[in-house]
Specification:
mainly alpha, 9 helices, about 80% helix
Length: about 280
């Protein structure tokens, strides 16, 4: 049976959609690209194996490794690219509108222009996803920086209150002095409490973003393949248990046979005792 081959255009599009999509199943990936290109597509399992072999990676895998400057540069680059694409699309729409008024029958040129427009739209979707992911990474980092600044400020206030209390002479301190320290401590405690709540909120936001955008290599694994490996492990354990039981049964049979042979041969010590009694 001949192996089905597919054009490089199909594989390039599959890879582009996979890497730019935050989360997409293999089946949905094949269906989406097949609908876009309007041609026969490889099966989801074939696409998965090729993705693993060629090490396809989500765009977020590379983005999270970039520093603040590189993230900002990436956002500027993508924004500029998409702005240029929008301007080009606007000009093409105007030209197309004018050409429709003058051309009665579609030509090969118009067909080529339509295909070029479709490719541009696909590239725009991929760039949009990547730009969104980059902005989300930057936003989460900015939240973390702001939260760290608030925590540092609260710690400084707490240390300041402790210093004031340690330097306070309780023998000569007035009620106003003690009241001021209590007030500072109460305010600082409220700040710390808010920091804890904000830390939980920031962590939850980051967790949700990570679930949607920060995919791990586990997403490349086919669940059916994982289940097959688990079944193989279970089957191997059952086979080992079966062999152990068979070995135990054989050892019991051998021990019984030895005991039976000794009984049939007679015990020499018992014979000597019987002769002495007689």
């Amino acid at each position: 049976m001949a192996v089905q081959s597919y054009s490089q255009e199909i594989w390039d599009r599959l890879k582009a959609v996979y890497e730019s999509s935050p989360k997409i199943t293999w089946q949905k990936l094949v269906d989406q690209v097949g609908e876009e290109l309007g041609c026969e597509m490889p099966s989801p399992s074939v696409v998965r194996r090729k993705a693993i072999a060629e090490k396809w990676k989500k765009c977020t895998k590379n983005l999270v490794k970039k520093n603040a400057k590189q993230i900002n540069d990436e956002i500027k680059k993508l924004t500029s690219k998409m702005t240029s694409q929008n301007e080009t699309q606007t000009n093409e729409n105007k030209e197309e509108s004018c050409s429709k008024k003058t051309v009665k029958k579609p030509s090969k040129v118009s067909t080529y222009d339509d295909e070029f427009a479709r490719n541009a739209q696909r590239s725009k979707v991929a760039d949009t996803n990547k730009l969104t992911a980059t902005r989300i990474i930057r936003e989460n980092r900015l939240r973390s920086v702001k939260l760290a600044s608030l925590i540092d400020s609260s710690l400084d206030s707490l240390l300041s209150v402790r210093k004031d209390f340690q330097e306070l002479d309780l023998k000569t301190a007035t009620e106003d002095d003690i009241g001021m320290i209590k007030f500072k401590m109460a305010v600082t405690s409220q700040f710390i409490e808010q920091n804890v709540k904000q830390s939980i909120s920031v962590a939850n936001i980051a967790k949700i973003d990570a679930m949607f955008w920060g995919l791990t290599e586990e997403d490349l694994k086919d669940q059916s393949e994982v289940q097959s490996k688990r079944s193989a492990v279970i089957a191997g354990a059952e086979e080992k248990l079966k062999l152990a039981k068979e070995k135990m049964a054989e050892e019991k049979k051998a021990a019984f046979a030895r005991k039976l042979a000794m009984i049939e041969a007679g015990d020499p010590e018992q014979d000597e005792e019987q002769e002495a009694i007689a």
